[in-house]
């Protein structure tokens, strides 16, 4: 098959597929880790004030809303791919497995066995795959005081499970919680294991319940020099 035909077939497949938005909306008052910058959206030009255009100033942290962690977020030293501007883009587009762990209780972690059980049912994870964990925690996402539950007692990934994923060669791990580590564990074992092996992390995802076991995932960050992370627009393409 010629390159033109391959491209045509690929484009046809995309046209016939569904695009699922996995990103939370950036809006004032949304849940934010207490030590991180709050989100602000300030009007600078407006038609009502006589300006010929409209624009707002954004105030946000690198880890605001649906975002990606670069190794620099927890790993002080590394190679050329340590910051968000230098990461390998090939790792950010490709096959993703979505593992439903919505039954995991508050302040509990996903054990290795849950990943192995999923593989028995759906097929083995492969090197360079992406793995998304659906805790169903996005149900707590809300602005203001209504979002308090989102930032408390969320479940996470166990250190052994994180090691299993890095041993497999997984490129990226995502979740619909505030962090991949369980809320109460401030030693951050999953962060250190994943980022220390250049397995990127995406947090604050949503709508993972709309995904089948496998989909095509796109998670592109802003190109921030010396950035420890970046907000992203995460989407999945479902056949």
From TrEMBL:
- BP term (GO), one: L-tryptophan catabolic process to kynurenine
Q: Which InterPro entries does the entry mention?
A: KFase/CYL (IPR007325), KFase_sf (IPR037175)
Domain of life assignment: Archaea
Annotated GO MF terms: arylformamidase activity
Protein name in UniProt: Kynurenine formamidase
């Amino acid at each position: 098959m010629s390159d033109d035909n391959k491209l045509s077939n690929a484009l046809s497949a995309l046209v016939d597929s569904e695009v699922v938005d996995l990103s939370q909306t950036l809006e004032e008052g949304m849940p934010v880790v207490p030590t991180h910058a709050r989100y602000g959206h300030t009007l600078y030009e407006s038609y009502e004030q006589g300006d010929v255009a409209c624009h707002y100033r954004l105030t946000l942290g690198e880890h605001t809303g649906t975002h990606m962690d670069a190794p620099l977020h927890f790993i002080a030293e590394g190679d050329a791919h340590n910051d968000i501007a230098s990461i390998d883009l090939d790792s950010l587009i490709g096959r993703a497995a979505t593992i439903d762990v919505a039954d995991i209780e508050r302040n509990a972690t996903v054990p290795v066995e849950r990943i192995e059980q999923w593989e028995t049912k759906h097929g083995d994870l492969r090197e360079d795959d992406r793995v998304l964990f659906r805790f169903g925690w996005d149900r707590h996402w809300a602005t203001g005081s209504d979002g308090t539950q989102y930032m408390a007692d969320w479940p996470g990934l166990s250190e052994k499970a994180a090691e299993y994923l890095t041993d497999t060669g997984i490129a990226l791990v995502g979740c619909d919680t505030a962090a991949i580590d369980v809320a109460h564990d401030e030693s951050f074992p999953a962060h250190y294991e994943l980022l220390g092996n250049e397995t990127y992390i995406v947090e604050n995802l949503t709508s993972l319940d709309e995904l089948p076991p496998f989909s095509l995932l796109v998670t592109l960050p802003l190109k921030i020099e010396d950035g420890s992370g970046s907000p992203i627009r995460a989407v999945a393409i479902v056949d």
